[in-house]
Amino acid sequence: DFERKLAQDIADLKINVELVNRSFENFSGGEAKKMELFQAKILKPRFLILDEIDSGLDIDNLRLIAENIQQMVKDNNAPGILLITHYPRILKFVKPDFLHVLMYGRIVRSDGPKLIQKIEKKGYQWLTKR
Predict the structure, then answer these.
(1) CA distance to 45, 65, 99, 103, 116, per residue, from 78 (Å)
(2) What is the pTM assigned to this prediction?
(3) Which of 57, 78, 85, 111 supports an S-S bond with 72, CB 3.0-4.6 Å?
(4) Which residues pair with 106 in a beta bridge?
(5) What is the pLDDT along the chain (130 residues), one digit of tens a residue?
(6) Spatial distance between the Cα atoms of 52 and 26, rounded to a whole number of angstroms
């Protein structure tokens, strides 16, 4: 039942029901991120691009967004996800299969999850050295 699924997705993302009737231009940054993911949960795309979904989120909302992304992957509601971020913080909660680091318009490094720890330890500068 669509309405039950809608209500469940609203509850999962802890969305204030009033947001559903409010114009997108009037959303806070966190509200906009939740609604972006809410739309993805409803539409169930085969490939989902999340561009800086973690930008401007406090730790509680970051964790909530990450849990919902993980659940979408687990339920196969988003078989492919491209998660674009500038900060590895969300990657503590979302466990990627592969990481690609882009700098200056090109991929400078591709690796598995262990790349996250290396970036947190050394930063990004080492990636530009040849």
Answers:
(1) 6, 14, 17, 26, 22
(2) 0.83
(3) 78
(4) 103
(5) 888 988 999 999 999 888 877 888 888 888 899 999 999 999 888 899 999 999 989 999 999 999 999 999 888 766 789 999 988 889 989 989 899 999 989 999 999 989 988 988 998 888 887 6
(6) 19
End-to-end CA distance of the chain: give it in Å, rounded. 55
> Following DSSP, what letter does each residue of 44-81 receive, concatenated?
--SEEEEESTTTT--HHHHHHHHHHHHHHHHTTSSSEE
User: CB burial class (10 A; 0-12, 13-18, 19+) of residue 112?
Assistant: exposed
**Domains annotated on the chain, with CATH:** 2-87 (3.40.50.300), 97-130 (no CATH)
What one-letter code names the amino acid at 11?
A
Entry field: residues in the chain: 130
Residue 103 CA to residue 109 CA, distance in Å, equals 9
